[in-house]
Design brief:
With 372 residues, this protein is mainly alpha-helical. The protein has two domains: 248 residues, Cytochrome Bc1 Complex, Chain C (Up-down Bundle); 111 residues, plastocyanin oxidoreductase (Helix Hairpins, Orthogonal Bundle). The chain has a two-stranded antiparallel ribbon with strand order 1-2. The longest helix is centred in the C-terminal third of the chain and has 33 residues. It is globular.
Length: 372
């Protein structure tokens, strides 16, 4: 009976007939979220949130716990695959104007903040060299907040330096926040189903809708098969492709790595942070690099929803994508010329996209009116 109800639910969920593969990344993200929650639960059973034992407990999980290496690698690789799908999902929303479903977009951006916080806390838990020093650099940014910065930092650390209480708090937050992610994801999906999906043409799809099953459920299954195959291929042949070599050494406060950097999925924000010499300005730019997504629904000026028929906007969008990748690349390089200059120019271009896109929309509107 339950299977019949499930099929009935899928059949009663009408969606646009022309949505493409780019719309499958939402279900891929849901699968990644479930996989991260399950593997994280089994890892938490064996993990010890103590600065003297954390590094050893990760090694114990990998070497001694039955199938622990699978759980540990799936969780680590799954985080990277999660963010690959997130960034593609966001890019699709920007390109096709999905952000005009305001409630869906705003809930999704809020979800992104929670995801990034959860990933940051999780990156610290192995207590390797890069985990420790990345946490030191990022948490120190709170001291830039006027008046209460030092108090906030001390509260987050649980003392006057990153120590045992810090690791315990980060572990607790990393365990609790996934429940917030599940709740926010549920809200995000419910809002999506109430407002309806967008489509590549950016038109009203009410006149041409088809049942979700079997037309789109099969596409979801295909993309999920590709995702899981990619994850297990990476896990089998290059499990450490996303890991920093420094993190295979236990955290040592007396030895500073030559180049401190976070995980690759934070590098775009980290690159923007370090491109500004002022600490408070850099911290504000780091937060704004994600928060600026919230402005997209309110600054859309074009008469057309999608960029599919806006060649100038397409050029600007792909410039934005190239800029994102450039900032990510420069953040892996030392803070010296020419990388500092490239990072500053790329950061400027990153933020300019959200300013020039509305202006370009107004220009396109005038051109279209003059031709009609």
């Amino acid at each position: 009976m339950s299977n019949q109800h499930t099929l009935l639910l899928f059949n009663l969920l009408p969606v646009g007939s022309n949505i493409s593969t780019w719309w499958n990344f939402g279900s891929m993200l849901l699968t990644c979220s479930i996989m991260q929650t399950i593997t994280g639960f089994f890892l938490a059973i064996h993990y010890t949130a103590n600065i003297n034992l954390a590094f050893s407990s990760v090694i114990h999980i990998t070497r001694d716990v039955p199938y622990g290496w699978i759980m540990q690698n799936l969780h680590a690789i799954g985080a990277s695959m999660f963010f690959i799908c997130v960034y593609i999902h966001i890019a699709r929303g920007l390109y096709y104007g999905s952000y005009l479903n305001k409630n869906v977009w705003l809930s999704g951006t809020t979800l992104l903040f929670i995801l990034m916080a959860t990933a940051f806390f999780g990156y610290v838990l192995p207590w390797g060299q890069m985990s420790f020093w990345a946490a030191t650099v990022i948490t120190n940014l709170l001291t830039a907040v006027p008046y209460i910065g030092t108090t906030l930092t001390t509260w987050l650390w649980g003392g006057f330096s990153i120590n045992d209480p810090t690791l315990t708090r980060f572990f607790a937050l990393h365990f609790i926040l996934p429940f917030a992610i599940i709740s926010m994801s549920s809200i995000h999906i419910m809002l999506l189903h109430s407002e309806g999906s967008s489509n590549p043409l950016g038109t009203n799809s009410d006149i041409d809708k088809i049942p979700f099953h079997p037309y789109h459920s099969y596409k979801d299954m295909l993309m999920l098969t590709i995702l899981i195959t990619a994850m297990f291929t990476i896990m089998s042949f290059t499990p450490n492709i996303f890991n920093d070599p420094e993190n295979f050494s236990k955290a040592n406060p007396l030895v500073t790595p030559q180049h401190i950097k976070p995980e690759w999925y934070f590098l775009f924000a980290y690159g923007i942070l370090r491109s500004i010499p002022n600490k408070l300005g850099g911290t504000m730019a780091l937060v704004l690099s994600v928060a600026i997504l919230l402005t997209a629904p309110f600054t859309h000026t074009s008469h057309m929803r999608s960029m599919m028929f806006r060649p100038m906007a397409q050029l600007m969008f792909w410039t934005f994508v190239a800029t994102f990748m450039t900032i990510t690349w420069t953040a892996t390089k030392p803070v010296e010329p020419p990388f500092t200059m490239i990072g500053q120019v790329a950061s400027l271009l990153y933020f300019s996209f959200f300013i020039t896109n509305p202006l370009l929309g107004l220009l396109e509107n005038k051109i279209s009116i003059s031709h009609t």
